[in-house]
Amino acid sequence: MSGFSYPILPSGHLLAIEGLEPPHISALLDLAESYALLNRQGKTQRDLLKGRTLINLFFEDSTRTRTSFELAGKRLGADIVNMSVSTSSVNKGETLLDTAATLNAMHTDLLVIRHAQSGAPALLAQKVDAAVINAGDGTHEHPTQALLDALTIRRRKGRLENLIVAICGDVLHSRVARSNIHLLSAMGARVRVVGPPTLMPSECARLGVEVHHDMRAGLDGADVVMMLRLQRERMNSGLVPSPREFFRFYGLDAAKLAHAKPDAIVMHPGPMNRGVEIDSAVADDAARSVIGEQVEMGVAVRMAVLDVLARALRRNA
Ligand code: CP
């Protein structure tokens, strides 16, 4: 991989998509594309992160993000520690900042954090010397998910500009939706959000997206249909009547998908609630669903992010 003439992540961290400029996003996607090709060929660069330590600090459950950061770090030669929060001193009352200070004293180079509180990774970034990567914070952002989604779309559609992307379901609680709205809007896509009024955030107008409460209108002519998980664990009141009722109006099935373009792709960040926000027949339709490719691109994107942040560490070493 060749060097870059400018810093792709100028802050030295990846805390959010909001604030990244289109050339930075394109450079990350280009680098991730090259890692995707190397991964498919079984060739990986094993020494880029040699001697560097990456800690995965997940305060919320994860399958895809945590595993792919571990794989990405290993493929680049880093030493990886998956800290088990459930058996750590967090359970004895240690605060996030004291945990951070402890990890800092161990000279961690890269800290990947998922936390239920929006802003936790940004707070940590002020307190530690490591490069901090936001792996999902509350309802705020999930930047690497948006990057892997964008890479998947770009591979399938050849571009992001002028595509109609419908993001559907529980937008209110979705950090995936927020990161995707920032990224896709910055890259010139037309973003629609589709869902019941109770699951729409008030900042939709500020974010410059089209809002639809009817799936037929929201999916009409869409190039990309991105379904979101119904996050019942973040709801403290009954925002939807029942999963069955939700599926009837907002679950993606073949009949609703027929309103999108005939070659529209179907995406879901996972984990999926089959029969709630998406029908199994659509999720498993190899002609339309790119859900498996999203997971594959997750490793490549995380390799690219670690690569870029490690270069900045070397510059500062
Ligand atoms: N998409 C996503 O963040 O999945 P995990 O919760 O499994 O990491």
Automatic annotation (TrEMBL):
* Highest rank taxon of the organism: Bacteria
Indicate the family of this protein: Belongs to the aspartate/ornithine carbamoyltransferase superfamily. ATCase family.
Quickly give the catalysed reaction: carbamoyl phosphate + L-aspartate = N-carbamoyl-L-aspartate + phosphate + H(+)
Q: Which pathway or pathways does this protein act in? A: Pyrimidine metabolism; UMP biosynthesis via de novo pathway; (S)-dihydroorotate from bicarbonate: step 2/3
What keywords appear on the UniProt entry?
A: Pyrimidine biosynthesis, Transferase
Per the UniProt entry, the Enzyme Commission number(s) are 2.1.3.2
Residues involved in carbamoyl phosphate binding: R64, T65, R114, H142, Q145, G270, P271
Taking every annotated instance into account, which residue ranges of this chain make up the domain Aspartate/ornithine carbamoyltransferase Asp/Orn-binding?
162-308
From which residue to which does any coiled coil extend? none
User: Can you tell me which residues bind L-aspartate?
Assistant: K92, R175, R229
> InterPro entries recorded for this chain?
Asp/Orn_carbamoyltranf_P-bd, Asp/Orn_carbamoylTrfase, Asp/Orn_carbamoylTrfase_sf, Asp_carbamoyltransf, Asp_carbamoyltransf_Asp/Orn-bd
A single GO cellular-component term from the record reads: cytosol
Sequence intervals crossing the membrane: none
Q: Which residues form the Aspartate/ornithine carbamoyltransferase carbamoyl-P binding domain?
A: 13-154
Q: Which gene encodes it?
A: pyrB
One Pfam family name is OTCace
Protein's name according to its UniProt entry:
Aspartate carbamoyltransferase
Which PROSITE patterns does this chain map to? CARBAMOYLTRANSFERASE
Assembly description? Heterododecamer (2C3:3R2) of six catalytic PyrB chains organized as two trimers (C3), and six regulatory PyrI chains organized as three dimers (R2).
Which GO molecular function entries does the Swiss-Prot or TrEMBL record give?
Answer: amino acid binding; aspartate carbamoyltransferase activity
